[in-house]
Amino acid sequence: MAKPTIAELRASCRGQVVTRDDSDYAEARKVYNGMIDRHPQVVIRAVDAADVMAAIGYARGNELDLSVRGGAHSVPGFGTNDGGVVLDLARMKGIRVDPAGRSVRAEGGCTWGDFFHATYPFGLATTGGIISTTGIGGLTLGGGIGHLTRGRGLSIDNLLSADVVTADGRFLQASARENDDLFWALRGGGGNFGVVTSFEYRLHPVKDVFVGLFFYEVAAARQILEFYRAYIATAPEEMGAFFAFQIAPPLPFIPEKRHGETFALIVACWAGPLERGEEALQPFRKAGPIAAELVTPMPFPALNSAFDALLPPGLQHYWKASFAAEISDGAIAAHVAHGPKVPVVNSTVHIYPINGAAARVQSDATAFAYRDARFATVIAGMWPEAADNAKNIKWVKDYYAAIRPHSAAGGYVNFMADDDQDRIRDNYKGNYERLVAIKKKYDPGNLFHMNQNIRPT
Ligand SMILES: Cc1cc2nc3c(=O)[nH]c(=O)nc-3n(C[C@H](O)[C@H](O)[C@H](O)COP(=O)(O)OP(=O)(O)OC[C@H]3O[C@@H](n4cnc5c(N)ncnc54)[C@H](O)[C@@H]3O)c2cc1C
């Protein structure tokens, strides 16, 4: 069969087809991680499912690598490649909220900023990422951890259905009623099974939230971690609160002379009744010595975009991830040894709670296997200058080596680096074989391999 040409691809797409000869090429080939510098043959800026089908047909027909991207936040840079095809969904931003049915259908190019902007006026939200520029696509398919996880589960626990174009170019709907094996695999299995053109989620009544940012003296980090471990085990599920090490940015509520110092930070989001917010945040005030705090109600989308300025596109990224059933004393010692050495204001370590609603789902109910983990830790190295890569990567690796003995074998696929492919089986534990079988059924040729790859063999 004749291989499809670029001219044929252009003729069959409504969106933009960008090659090296186009003035947009330099912009179109970029992803969020500035460390990734790749030159695909073509970038297809799709606008609908038909474009997605055309892109898949072109990549398959020419036997080229295919990268799929939405928000382009993949730290390993799976959203681009050298010499292959990039399917960029960022122009597919349609969102339709069904307020009566408390659900929403959002296209694969939406970011969480787009999403919460659309659901906020209805006083509704679901679990999504903590940064507004992250795509709903990659984040949801890997699991989806955010401020609402403890009360509302992971993003995938709120996924009702997905429209998917598979490797053979078919358009399928996946839900509990149709193609339920595909639906199971999409919920945690990443981009391995097809291109999701739209996601349908359950929504919950969340509008304004009561937020607490507590910057504790870093010398008290051990005490704060011990407090956090005990507190979050039994905290009301309306409370999303994660622990971090963070250099103080120049924010008005932090005394100027303390800008640039490192702190132990708790970011708390109370998504229960606002009038109970002050009271709900009181335990954090008693946890240890506070150098600065911000305690205030705010619209949920405002919290979602509050940290965006720290994380502009183009930073260098190198991350490591682990799950843990408990923050052991050994883990605390490792955190206290490495966290305070966080090298730059953009870098951080987050320990997210994934207990509560997320933990009530059975480990084999979705592809996301670590329902027995209570914490998902990410060591997120993010810094501006490529010249500083060695130093910053070393910090991430040393830190990770120190917490690894105190962690589970697997980690959250969305927080992993490109050198973590050997951990795929561990990430999925008892669900791995079933994922391989579903991969064989829907993508036997492994067209979708630019990801934390589940091989069909
Ligand atoms: C600044 C920052 C903040 C983050 N915060 C969080 C957080 O709060 N919670 C959390 O859980 N994770 C978080 N992450 C991790 C995030 O979940 C992953 O980076 C995720 O891959 C990003 O999704 P994306 O659509 O933006 O990325 P992309 O690079 O566009 O996509 C990543 C991969 O997902 C797959 N994919 C994406 N969209 C589709 C689709 N529609 N159909 C099929 N496959 C698709 C592809 O394999 C693609 O290569 C964060 C990452 C960054 C960089």
What is this structure, in a nutshell?
With 457 residues, the chain is of the alpha+beta class. It has helices at residues 6-12, 25-28, 49-61, 112-119, 136-142, 149-152, 180-186, 221-234, 277-285, 300-305, 329-338, 389-403, 424-428, 432-442, and strands spanning 16-19, 42-45, 66-69, 85-88, 95-98, 103-107, 124-125, 159-165, 171-175, 195-202, 204-205, 208-217, 239-247, 262-270, 290-299, 316-324, 348-353, 375-383.
Distance between the termini: 26 Å
- Tally the helices: what do you get? 14
Small-molecule binders: flavin-adenine dinucleotide
- What level of helicity do the residues show? 25-40%
Unreliable segments of 5+ consecutive residues: none
Strand order of the biggest β-sheet: 15-12-14-13-17-18-16
Number of strands: 18
Question: How much strand?
Answer: 15-25%
What features would you describe in this structure?
- With 457 residues, the protein is an alpha+beta fold.
- 26% of the residues lie in helices and 24% in strands.
- The protein contains 14 helices and 18 strands.
- The strands form four sheets. It has a seven-stranded antiparallel sheet.
- Strand 5 and strand 6 form a beta hairpin.
- Helix 8 crosses helix 11 and helix 11 runs antiparallel to helix 12.
- The protein is globular and about 70 Å long.
- The chain binds flavin-adenine dinucleotide (FAD).
- Flavin-adenine dinucleotide binds next to strand 3, helix 5 and strand 10.
